């Protein structure tokens, strides 16, 4: 019988043969099989590799992915705010409207540090959704540039109401500054939605940054620059918001409904112990009589005594400074204490609601 050529057999086949071969009759074949198996065991084995496709280029991120990352970051910031508020409630309440500055600093730090080279250009929300903030050369931003970018983005939300806290400011100046900050916020979202060429918003353009998909591929930034028309819209919007704020609060504007509300807000904030105020006119939906509910919310220190007396004084100022106050169905004064740092808030309120006539019976002239 011819000698089999065991070099042509695979390892599983050789092991199967070795189980059934008669070792006493074919000892030389058993020895050859064992030598072949030892040779195969000593030979380096090839590890199969999975071929990876070509790496996708790092292109500018879409608007919805950026919004999604921001919402995730907002939830994380809210959790941080709740923890800080629970630990420092009394201290934050003592800050009054300046608590917003605390929130501004926290948010700027939260976005600025991770989105710099320190954090690889990614906040937690961006890391989860695969985004990164970079310079045009693909490198992460420096800490200063990243902090400035974050500050511009957070500016309007946290600080838009702060100018009203400066009682030394002229009403028109405070209103103009507040509206200008609202204009910054408007421009941020306008560019984010409509600047389709580069997807750079106002805070991105300020430091020359791009938000891209975080991939291993080559950098593929858009070759085109932002459309000049967008720059014109941004400039015109900032000017328009500022002018509108000054116009609304001009000395002769108290005859208008909005001007009258701003006037009431200003005189209420000037009262001792009041750190902030908002004034609104709303509609009584069940009455069908139009906008006939005047609401004044005054923020005070938690230790403010005799809140009812303060409410009467505020109602008196409202009736004196709001031209349509006498035609209101009700005037509600809310005395509120607590804190608002933008990423968390806590309020305790007491409402005092009367008709204009009832407020007069309560001792008003």
Structure description:
This protein has 365 residues and is an alpha+beta fold. It has helices spanning 11-20, 27-42, 63-87, 89-95, 99-112, 124-129, 143-159, 171-194, 202-207, 228-248, 257-269, 307-321, 356-361, and strands spanning 131-134, 210-213, 274-283, 291-300, 330-340, 345-354. Helix 1 packs antiparallel against helix 2 (27-42), helix 7 (143-159) packs across helix 8 and helix 11 (257-269) packs antiparallel against helix 12 (307-321). 32% of the residues are buried.
Highlighted features:
two-stranded antiparallel ribbon; 13 helices; single chain; 49% helix; 3 domains; GMP Synthetase, Chain A, domain 3; 365 residues; four-stranded mixed beta sheet; alpha+beta; 6 strands
**Beta-strand percent range:** 5-15%
Let me know the largest β-sheet.
4 strands, mixed
> What do the pLDDT scores average to?
85
For the largest sheet, list the strands in their spatial order: 3-4-5-6
In the residues, how many domains can be counted?
3
User: What class would the helix/strand composition place it in?
Assistant: alpha+beta
Rg measurement, Å:
35 Å
Uncertain parts? none
Helix content: 40-55%
| Terminal residue distance | 130 Å
* Total number of strands: 6
Instruction: Summarize the helix and strand pattern as letters.
Output: HHHHHHEHHHEHHEEHEEH
Shape: elongated
| Separate helix tally | 13
Membrane topology: Multi-pass membrane protein
Keywords: Cell membrane, Membrane, Transmembrane, Transmembrane helix
Organism: Duganella margarita
Transmembrane segments: 67-86, 98-118, 139-159, 171-193, 230-249
């Amino acid at each position: 019988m011819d000698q089999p050529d065991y070099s042509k057999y695979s390892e599983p086949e050789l092991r199967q043969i070795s189980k059934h071969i008669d070792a006493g009759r074919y000892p030389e074949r058993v020895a050859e099989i064992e030598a072949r198996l030892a040779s195969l065991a000593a030979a380096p084995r090839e590890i199969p590799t999975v071929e990876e496709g070509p790496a996708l280029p790092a292109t500018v991120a879409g608007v919805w992915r950026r919004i999604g990352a921001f919402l995730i970051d907002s939830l994380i910031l809210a959790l941080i705010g709740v923890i800080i508020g629970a630990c420092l409630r009394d201290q934050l309440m003592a800050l009054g409207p300046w608590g917003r500055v605390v929130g501004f600093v926290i948010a700027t730090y939260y976005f600025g540090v991770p989105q710099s080279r320190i954090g690889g250009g990614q906040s937690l929300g961006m890391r989860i959704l695969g985004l990164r903030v970079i310079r045009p050369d693909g490198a992460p931003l420096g800490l200063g540039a990243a902090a400035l970018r974050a500050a511009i983005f957070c500016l309007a939300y946290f600080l838009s109401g702060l100018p009203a806290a400066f009682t030394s400011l002229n009403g028109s100046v405070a209103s103009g500054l507040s509206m200008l900050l609202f204009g910054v916020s408007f421009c941020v979202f306008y560019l984010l939605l409509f600047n389709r060429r580069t997807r750079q918003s106002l805070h991105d353009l300020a430091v020359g940054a791009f938000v891209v998909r975080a991939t291993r591929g080559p950098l593929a930034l858009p070759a085109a620059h932002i459309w000049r028309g967008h720059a014109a819209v941004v400039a015109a919007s900032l000017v328009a918001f500022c002018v509108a704020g000054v116009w609304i609060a001009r000395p002769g504007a108290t005859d208008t409904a909005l001007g009258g509300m701003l006037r009431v807000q200003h005189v209420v904030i000037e009262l001792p112990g009041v750190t902030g105020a908002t004034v609104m006119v709303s509609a009584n939906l069940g009455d069908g009589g139009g906008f006939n509910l005047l609401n004044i919310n005054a923020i005070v220190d938690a230790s403010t005594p005799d809140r009812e007396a303060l409410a009467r004084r505020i109602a008196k100022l409202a009736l004196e400074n709001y031209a349509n106050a006498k035609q209101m169905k009700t005037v509600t004064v809310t005395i509120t204490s607590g804190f608002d740092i933008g990423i968390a808030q806590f309020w305790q309120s007491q409402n005092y609601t009367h008709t204009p006539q009832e407020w007069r019976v309560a001792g008003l002239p």
